[in-house]
Amino acid sequence: MSQQTCPRCGGSGVTEKLRYTVETGPDGRQQPKAESYLSPCDHCGGKGHVN
Ligand SMILES: [Zn+2]
User: Fold this and answer.
1) First-residue to last-residue Cα distance in the chain
2) In whole angstroms, what is the distance from residue 13 CA to residue 7 CA?
3) Which residues contact residue 48 at a Cβ distance below 8 angstroms, ignoring those fewer than 6 apart?
4) CA 26: distance to chain centroid?
5) pLDDT per residue as tens digits for the range 10-48
6) Residue 12 backbone phi and psi in degrees, to 5
7) Rounded to the nearest whole angstrom, what is the distance from the C-alpha of residue 33 to the centroid of ligand 1?
């Protein structure tokens, strides 16, 4: 049984994703905001390698 580096995350176990939120500014206007965050890779389950 051999293990390969996960092609999705490159072995880091996490992938960067974008989340869109709406923020209300001080003037009461709503502004969309994109925010990047790291999430466990859903291809390898966060292990960084696949069997
Ligand atoms: Zn992965």
Assistant:
1) 7
2) 10
3) 5, 6, 9, 11, 12, 13, 41
4) 29
5) 999 999 999 999 999 999 999 999 999 999 999 999 999
6) -80, -20
7) 27
Q: Distance, CA 35 to ligand 1 centroid (Å)? A: 21
pTM over 0.70: no
CA torsion, ordered 20, 25, 30, 34, to nearest 10 deg? -20
Q: Find the 51 Cα to ligand 1 centroid distance in Å.
A: 11
Residues bordering ligand 1, an ion, CB closer than 5 Å? 6, 8-9, 41, 43-44
- Give the Å distance between the CA of 17 and the centre of ligand 1: 13
